[in-house]
Design brief:
The complex is a heterodimer of chains A (about 270) and B (about 250). Chain A is mainly alpha-helical. Chain A has a domain of about 180 residues: Cytochrome Bc1 Complex, Chain C. Chain B has three domains: about 35 residues; about 80 residues, Helix Hairpins; about 90 residues, Cytochrome Bc1 Complex, Chain D, domain 2 (Orthogonal Bundle). Chain B has eleven helices and one strand; from the N terminus they run H-E-H-H-H-H-H-H-H-H-H-H. In chain B, helix 3 crosses helix 4, helix 7 packs across helix 11 and helix 9 crosses helix 11. The longest helix of chain B is centred in the first third of the chain and has 27 residues. The mean pLDDT of chain B is about 85. The chains are: A mainly alpha (about 270), B mainly alpha (about 250). The interface between A and B is large, with 89 and 84 residues.
Chain lengths: ~270, ~250
């Protein structure tokens, strides 16, 4: 039976349907203004075809039974974005030199408007992000979500975990107070005991055999350019694979067999 | 997973996905609420805990305690738990590296089709064990404090040498305490037992020159005291004297 489509009743506020014979599209400047948003998006879409991708991303289906555990990944990404935003504001006032670093952080804490608040958000945000990374990884592990076909996404996730730890290791030195300075020396020394690459890695981190003036700026460059760029790129790829393969259903959920569905239909 | 199991998984997942709801707005709403909670938690932590700054870093100082960020405590505690010096590289690099490799390769050696945690007892129990072990080590690291005073009475032969030797011994003990040695070494009743070896009777095991050499050119991860020797040779000398007298 062909589907019958009921005519839409006229609603208040809705523009009257177009009649044949009338010219289409906005005519008056007022109509143009009303459709400015749509036409701007249309202009971009005509040149990029991004709307298909956006529709693919936003209107993909999420399996039945998806619960709050599945928000941990996006929460991690949000924590990273918060770190990026607060980090940009801290970078505006920070001076990555052995002589000026400590004083610039003290200036942020004591003089800059909301300085200590943003510094605190960045400091504690790192703890929150690490916790979320581990919770997200725990969920993936215990739900068996790393299995076929999502093996590659697990591997990317482990790389992201290591990069997150690198962020916190390099960021810990930047305030350049006693605690961060000596903890970083011990940390770099521990790296140096590693097999094969260990000594080279610690020489690279220190910018030489000793902890010198360039060490701090090297840590700063790694902390605010190298690693965040890598994290953002890998996070994008991680997210693309999530959208492509779909989020897992909770492992104890079983799909009703399609045969049964067919039987039910026949019986009815 | 063989080909048939893979196909069955994809078929079943396809059905579950078709029964699901669109990402926007259902999942987006949940994710947004979670993001708001994360933001509130960060803001509250920032307001309550602040971002205090310790004293300025001073490479020439002798007073410091190397303390990493709390989520590295479990790695640091691993050094404390593993005692014998020949196994220390295993703790510093071996176990973390092996753990990382195992983590990387997880989907390649765990290829079974089963996903329910209660039907994967080995994986689930291993996971719980790792979580508990890391939590316990973090707790140990958080509760380990490094004393800033060392109370060791001067031994009899130092007392016999007269007041000057006793004074040198005591000021040496103070330098060692301020230098944070007790964070990693046990000295009598003070200090943490590990990662470094016990120093209670170091003078019996090592001659004075060897102690001096170790302080200037230590084995990792111990930091070097060469700077102290240059800047304050007297303090450094007291330190060496104190350690050499511990018998």
């Amino acid at each position: 039976m062909p589907k019958l489509k009921l005519p839409v009743p006229p609603m208040p506020g809705r523009p009257a349907p177009k009649r044949p014979g009338k010219t289409y599209g906005p005519q008056t400047p007022r109509e143009h203004g009303r459709e400015a948003g749509t036409s701007a998006i249309g202009w971009i879409d005509e040149r990029t075809s991004l709307s298909g991708g956006a529709r693919w991303m936003m209107f993909r289906k999420v399996p039945k039974g998806t619960n709050w555990f599945y928000t941990l990944g996006s929460a991690t990404m949000f924590a990273f974005l918060a770190q990026a935003v607060t980090g940009v504001f801290l970078a505006m006032y920070y001076d990555p030199s052995a002589t000026g670093a400590y004083d610039s952080i003290r200036n942020i804490n004591n003089e800059v408007f909301l300085g200590e608040f943003v510094h605190g958000m960045h400091k504690w945000g790192s703890s929150v992000m690490v916790i979320l990374v581990f919770l997200h990884m725990g969920r993936t592990f215990f739900f068996g979500a790393y299995k076929y076909p999502r093996e590659l996404n697990w591997v990317i996730g482990v790389v992201l975990l290591i990069l997150t730890m690198t962020m916190s290791f390099t960021g810990y030195l930047l305030p350049f107070d006693q605690r961060s300075y000596w903890a970083t020396i011990v940390g770099v020394n521990i790296n140096g005991t590693g097999p094969f690459v260990g000594p080279y890695l610690s020489d690279f981190l220190r910018a030489g055999p000793d902890f010198g003036a360039t060490t701090l700026s090297r840590f700063y460059a790694i902390h605010m350019m190298l690693v965040p760029g890598a994290i953002a790129a890998l996070m994008g790829f991680h997210l693309y694979l999530v959208a492509k393969l779909g989020t897992t259903a909770p492992p104890w959920l079983r799909a009703k067999s399609p045969e049964k569905l067919r039987e039910e239909k026949v019986a009815r | 997973m063989n080909k048939q199991q893979k196909e069955q998984y994809l078929r079943e997942y396809g059905i579950l996905k078709a029964e699901g709801k669109p990402f926007f707005p259902y999942a987006v709403a949940k994710d947004s609420l979670m993001a708001a909670i994360v933001l509130v938690v960060i803001i509250v932590m920032s307001i309550v805990l602040g971002a205090e700054l310790g004293p300025k870093a001073d490479p020439t100082t002798t007073t410091y305690t190397p303390r990493p960020e709390w989520y590295f405590f479990f790695l640091f505690e691993l050094l404390r738990v593993i005692k014998p010096p020949e196994l220390v590289p295993l703790a510093t690099i071996g176990i973390p590296t092996i753990g990382m490799i195992l983590l990387f390769l997880l989907p390649f050696y765990d290829r079974g089709p089963e996903r329910r945690p209660e039907r994967r007892p080995i994986a689930t129990l291993t996971g719980i064990f790792v979580v508990v072990a890391m939590g316990y080590l973090t707790y140990l690291g958080a509760s380990a404090e490094s004393p800033t005073t060392i109370s060791i009475d001067p031994p009899a032969n130092v007392v016999a040498q007269g007041d000057k030797a006793v004074a040198t011994f005591n000021s040496g003990a103070q330098v060692v305490a301020q230098a944070g040695c007790a964070a990693c070494h046990k000295l009598g009743h003070s200090g943490n037992d590990g990662p470094g070896p016990e120093l209670t009777d170091i003078g019996r095991r090592l001659p004075r020159q060897a102690i001096e050499r170790t302080l200037i050119n230590p084995t990792a991860p111990m930091p070097s005291f060469a700077q102290l020797q240059q800047d304050a040779p007297q303090q450094f000398d007291e330190m060496v004297t104190f350690l050499a007298e511990l018998k």
